[in-house]
Give the backbone structure.
Amino acid sequence: MIKDIIRDSGDRMKKAVEHIISEFIKVRTGRASVGLLDGIKVDYYGTPTPLNQVGNISTPDSHSITIQPWDKSIIQLIEKCILNSNLGLNPANDGTLIRIPIPPLNEERRRELVKLVKKMAEEGRVAVRNIRRDEIEKMKKTEKAEHISEDDRKHGETEIQKLTDKYIKDIDEILSKKEKEIMEV
C-alpha cells in the first residue's frame, strides 16, 4: 500500500514538471519556435481546432515561423487567431502562406519574461509540495486504517520527500535553462 502511494506521488509530481515544461515552451524567447503557437485554436467549420491540425507549421530560420494551411479558405481565420492570441506577433499573408516574423526582444521585455517564468516555476514547486502534503496525509490515514507500522509510514514519508526534492531540483534546472535562453541576445 505504501509503495502504491509513493508511485502515485511520483507520477503526479512528474506530471507537474511536464506541465511547467509545456508552459515554458509557450514563452517567447526571441527565437522562432513552433511551440509558440501551441495554444492557438482556429474555428474550423465550427470546431476549435489546434493550429497544427489545419496546416504545416515550420521555422525556416531563427527569426520567422511559416504556416501553410491545407485549406486556403481559412488563411484569414488563422491570421486573425494569431493576431488575437496576445503573443504580440504580426502575421503576413501572401495568399497561400502565412509568415510570422519574430521580433527580437528588448532588455525590459526579457526581464518581464524572466519574472513570468520564475512565477511559473514557483507555481510548479508549490504544486509538487502540495502533492507531497496530500500523499503524506494519505499515508497517515492508511497507517490508522490498515494497521501499517509507524516505521513503514516514516520510510514512505522519507521516500516521498526524496521525490519532492528531485522534482523541485528538476524545476529549478528547467528554470535556469529557460532564463539563459530568454536573456541571450
